[in-house]
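Following the same procedure, sequence and fold were stored together, as reproduced here.

>
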Amino acid sequence: MMRLVSLALIIAALAYLLSPRLRRRVRARAPMFLLGALALTATGLAITGRLNWIFAAISAALPAIWRFAPLLRFLPMVARLTGRGREAGASPGSDEQDAGSAPPPRREGRMSRQEAAEMLGVETDADRDRIMAAHRRLIQRLHPDRGGTDYLASRLNEARDVLLEDQR
């Protein structure tokens, strides 16, 4: 049995060394080959009684884990939805902050016209209708009743008030 396994390994190594096409395919699928070899070895050891049944269960679960590994890319989205993500919101000062974002450090005093315009995404000399439309668009997405935070809603309201102050 050992001689057959050794012969198969030698033939596989020679085929790998002689064929560049096979080399590219092996490199592309190396993780799958490694996982398959691990599972096959663990299964063989479990069948012969040389491996504990717990390890056999782990090796049986490896293909399922490998199959669902691409789903791990959705974990940051889940973290943002639950408010636990590090990237829960956009960068401070942007007009599209998500609900779970930590508030940026607040400066003392009232918001400047420039900060208010940046927050609402309008020019500093925008007319009342444009300011109200921008405020309405953002508050609909960031209102606390729709998953936003009180902080963001109050900042949007403050930005609207600062920009409308001269127009009253």
About this structure: Residues 2-74 form one domain.
